[in-house]
Amino acid sequence: MKSKACELVGCEFPLFAFSHCRDVVAAVSKAGGYGVLGAVGHSPESLEIELSWIDEHVDGHPYGVDLIVPTSIADREGTLTAQDLIDRVPDTHKRHVEHILATHGIDTADLWDTRLPEGYGDNMRESGASAQLEVALNHPITSVVNALGAPPKFMVDAARAKGIAVGALTGSREHALKNVEAGVDFLVVSGTEAGGHCGEISTLVVVPEVIETLRQHNMDVPVLAAGGIVTGKQMAACMMMGAAGAWCGSVWLTTTEAETLPSIKEKMLSANSRQTVRSKSRTGKYTRQLRSPWTDAWQGEAAPEPLPMPLQGLVSGPPLRRIDKLAESGHAGARQLATYWVGQGVGLMNDSLSARTVVMNFMEDFAGAYEQFQSVVED
Question: 151, 172 in Cβ contact below 8 A?
Answer without folding.
Answer: no
